[in-house]
Amino acid sequence: xxxxxxxxxxxxxxxxxxxxxxxxxxxxxxxxxxxxxxxxxxxxxxxxxxxxxxxxxxxxxxxxxxxxxxxxxxxxxxxxxxxxxxxxxxxxxxxxxxxx
Length: 100
Description:
By secondary structure, this protein is an all-alpha fold.
């Protein structure tokens, strides 16, 4: 496919700019948050190129804890992520989950 294409200077790869480029957009102003954000209970799909881009954490578990998380999430019909998020949401709602 590329045998008929020229990628050198004469091939037009490095032409001067035409001025039709759009200027970079300035980021929107962000207001400070004074409280813990509300957690959505609805499941969110994070897979795919156009999916929701949620923050991720790579965590290491002891084998016993990992087996428990895997089996309990399977028993409840949830993914491991959904199960861990549900456990953390329940913890956040309790008195010991309050962040000062």
